């Protein structure tokens, strides 16, 4: 069982990112969300902007019908991509010609590489940031 402060931080992040709390906790408990902040002993349980973007992507993947573990896997890949490329304009999960899937991070929306892959789920990062800002600004939960 998780401590109350842990639950409060996750509940608030789920509210902001519009993610079903119970589904997310189940994914975390199954080890399917490795980018969860505060996993390392002694590290703070604070959801920064990158954490909230990845959590939002997780929630949208659930809405698209992905299972929690698969959504957690792709959200964690998106988190890693956003950490490496903080100015990314888009993230896509695309089917490759050999039937695999890959996460594509793009900084230039004028010529997106993922656009060459016709079967994809595309996330507009600046639009998601704008959508999350009002919710995050109204957050009253103390950081854990």
Task: Tell me what you see in this structure.
This protein is α+β, with helices and mostly antiparallel strands and 144 residues long. The chain has a domain at 4-86 and 125-137: Multidrug-efflux Transporter Regulator, Chain: A, Domain 2 (Orthogonal Bundle), CATH 1.10.1660. The chain is 47% helix and 12% strand. It is built from five helices and three strands; from the N terminus they run ααααβββα. It has helices at residues 4-17, 21-29, 49-63, 68-84, 125-137, and strands at residues 90-95, 101-106, 120-124. A three-stranded antiparallel β-sheet has the order 2-1-3. Helix 1 (4-17) packs across helix 3 (49-63), helix 3 (49-63) runs antiparallel to helix 4 and helix 3 packs across helix 5. Residues 1-6 and 140-144 have low confidence and may be disordered.
Give the secondary structure arrangement, pairings included:
Layout: H1 4-17, H2 21-29, H3 49-63, H4 68-84, E1 90-95, E2 101-106, E3 120-124, H5 125-137
Antiparallel strand pairs: 1-2, 1-3
Helix pairs in contact: 1-3, 3-4, 3-5
Short description:
With 144 residues, this protein is of the alpha+beta class. The chain has helices at residues 4-17, 21-29, 49-63, 68-84, 125-137, and strands spanning 90-95, 101-106, 120-124. The protein has a three-stranded antiparallel beta sheet.
């Amino acid at each position: 069982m998780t401590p109350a402060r842990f639950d409060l931080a996750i509940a608030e992040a789920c509210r902001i990112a519009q993610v079903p709390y119970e589904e997310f906790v189940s994914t975390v408990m199954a080890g399917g969300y490795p980018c969860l902040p505060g996993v390392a002993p002694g590290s703070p349980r604070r959801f920064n902007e990158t954490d909230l973007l990845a959590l939002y992507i997780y929630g949208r993947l659930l809405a698209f019908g992905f299972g929690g573990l698969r959504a957690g896997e792709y959200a964690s890949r998106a988190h890693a991509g956003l950490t490496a490329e903080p100015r990314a304009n888009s993230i896509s999960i695309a089917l490759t010609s050999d039937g695999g899937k890959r996460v594509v991070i793009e900084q230039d929306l004028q010529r997106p590489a993922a656009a060459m892959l016709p079967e994809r789920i595309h996330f507009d990062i600046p639009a998601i940031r704008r959508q999350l800002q009002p919710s995050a600004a109204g957050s009253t939960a103390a950081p854990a």
